[in-house]
Specification:
- GO terms for molecular function: DNA-binding transcription factor activity; transcription cis-regulatory region binding.
- By secondary structure, this protein is an alpha+beta fold.
- Helices cover 43% and strands 20% of the residues.
- The strands form 2 sheets. Strands 1-8-3-6-9 form a 5-stranded antiparallel sheet.
- A hairpin with a 5-residue loop joins strand 4 and strand 5.
- It starts with a strand and ends in a 6-residue tail after the last helix.
Length: 265
């Protein structure tokens, strides 16, 4: 996934699940990320942030020029990072059983990495004439530039938690009618077992479904120009007003605050 995030006001966004490794290039404003485990990392304009996948983090996006916060994202799938040549190269720097920091800052972005980053982002734009193999190679080029800086990308281990499996399922169809019986059946367990296993992880099914939908809505608000009402429908809410209430309950600010004056909303 690639995204170009713009915010019309500074926001603190808490408890966001990052499932894939991500490279974030900050163009305007200041980004601070606080992983659930590990120290906070602050990134200034012109710098980049590398996030490990499979973790929950807090983001604080701050405006410094009085206009907007702006950053570009690139996320890496297991299909790309499973490339044999890349895996062999990573082993020479960091063995597979070595842990990676949850967040790392790249204070200076080499020109070659910046160019590869933009080519990969452009390659992920919908274009039926661009072969998938070419897009994968463009993403791998970014990964190898990072490797030259001593920065390794690694696919996180499969999430064995029941909540992780449900998150992955919900993400395939955010506007689906996800009832407890349907999810329990898909996971080949009873509803009672489903409730019990989620309780052990400290979350209810209703909370989990709302969180996945709200996190996806946040991405769509940041990275697209779609109307709020369209985004509400896309993540499973027939009523934009009900969606706005749920969004404010989750993040502490209205959906329109994400864009502010930067997008005229």
């Amino acid at each position: 996934m690639a995204a170009h995030v713009m915010q019309g006001e500074g926001l603190e966004i808490v408890r966001i699940r990052v499932d894939r490794p991500a490279l974030i290039r900050v163009d305007r404003g200041i980004k601070t990320v606080k992983p659930a485990r590990g120290p906070a990392v602050r990134v200034l304009p012109g710098q980049a942030l590398l996030l490990a996948g499979g973790q929950t983090v807090d983001f604080h996006n701050r405006i410094t020029d009085g206009e907007r916060y702006e950053a570009r994202w690139l996320m890496f799938s297991g299909t790309v990072l499973a490339d044999p040549y890349y895996l062999a190269a990573t082993e020479r720097i960091s063995p597979a059983d070595a842990g990676l920091p949850p967040a790392r800052a790249l204070r200076g972005v080499p020109a070659g990495l910046e160019e590869a980053f933009e080519r990969a982002r452009s390659g992920l734009a919908p274009d039926p004439s661009r072969p998938d193999a070419v897009v994968r190679q463009q993403l791998l080029e970014v990964a190898h530039w990072l490797l030259a800086e001593g920065l390794v990308l690694r696919v996180p281990a499969d999430d064995a938690r029941i909540s992780g499996r449900i998150r992955a399922m919900l993400s395939t169809q955010l506007d689906g009618d996800w009832s407890s019986p349907a999810i329990a059946k898909a996971l080949a367990m009873s509803e009672a077992t489903l409730r019990r296993r989620l309780s052990v992880e400290g979350i209810t099914l209703r909370e989990l479904i709302a969180d996945v939908r709200m996190a996806s809505a946040l991405i769509l608000l940041q990275a697209t120009s779609r109307q709020v009402s369209d985004i509400a429908l896309a993540v499973g809410y027939d009523s934009p007003s009900r969606f706005a209430v749920r969004f404010r309950d989750r993040f502490g600010f209205a959906p329109t605050a994400v864009r502010g004056h930067a997008r005229g909303m």
